[in-house]
Amino acid sequence: MLLEKIHKSGIVGAGGAGFPTAKKMNAKAEYLIINAAECEPLLKTDHYVMKHFAEECIKAITEVGKMVECEKIVIATKDYYHEEIACLESAIENQNAPITIHKMNNFYPAGDEQVMVFEVTGRTVPPTGIPLQVGCVVSNITTMLNVYEAMEHDKPVTEKLVTITGAVNKPTMVLVPVGTPFSTCLELAGGTPLKQFIFLNGGPMMGKIGNHNNFNDQVVTKTTSGIIILEEKEYLYQLHERQINQIITQAKAACIQCRLCTQLCPRYQIGIPLHPHQVMRHLATSDVPDDIDDDPVWKQAILCCECGICEVIACPMSLSPRQVNIYVKQRLAEKGIRYQYNGEELIPQPMREYQKTPPKNILLKMGLEKYVNNDLSELITHETEEVFIPLKMHIGAPCKSVVKKGDRVEKGQLIADIDEGSLGAPIHASISGEVLCVSDSLIQIKKDVA
Q: Where is the 4Fe-4S ferredoxin-type domain (predicted)?
């Protein structure tokens, strides 16, 4: 059974938060939407998959479509991906697959799950809801490649395709074992000329930021899509250096209530009742954090998808509504306060088509336009000597080791599993070798010496 193979192979969403794919696909839906929009600027992982593995992806998508008994199978991508679309269309024709391609304009965040559902179907997913509530199941194109490997070869997820770009000597795509240190990936890209740098684990807008001091602690997981190396002096460094108390003080003092953060918010544009400017206004009259309570304005922050448009593009005062929303969400979560959708009609904004954010504006604001033309056509496949495999690479409960120190494991062998009934996905050895360490958070494996 395909669903069981997907679960046993440990497949999770390849480019997002890592929701277990078997759980998501255990449903019946009107639409199966495949996300092939590569949401973040500079990342090219999904591009590579579409160009080089179109036949495999189309075969997997067709079978998944049968499994969820959908009426429509749609691959949603950007209309300027000419070469990628040609490869997909050729594979669809070769297999006579019941799949259509929905071509979207080039805007950010086209790859956001709820934005994509609206683009394809015209339906708005209810606040705090999931696409299934409007008849849709959404999955990433690279996730479908992993489904193909499970379906055809019983192959679990042991490797990850990753974009390495930015201030590196040789920007490239790498295929490395899960658990490979970021430092190894940087070496494969020829290193960096920078003595001190910041890095993004993911894209410029929603990636997790760090610096050279904690770079060596990072490893490739099932959800790692890209590693971007940047100078410390760049806009992103300045943006993320601010502490939350500074952010709140600046917001109280300088917010001019222009509403641009709301007008350009992708969730607000599709009808979600999120108004970031109202949350910012609440700060001006509140004693933070004591006054953050069960208030309808504060609870709007829960609906924020943290895309970053409000702080990078919208705000003329260089404030950070996103960081404020994140902070408010955390305080509400600590108090156990949740958002309750009251069933009101969700009305998309009539000016949405004219207020979408072009990715080029983001890159110009961040000073990253110089990396747009980095050649990422080459793929380097690397067999890492030592891996550090995290036991939590997905939404849900962490896995528990089923091996112990001193055990010898083969690549693809089950090394950690979830408790029955828990949300999660099993984890497999990404190289063959000896287990050097087992902790509550990771399993370390060293490759056999020939």
A: 246-275
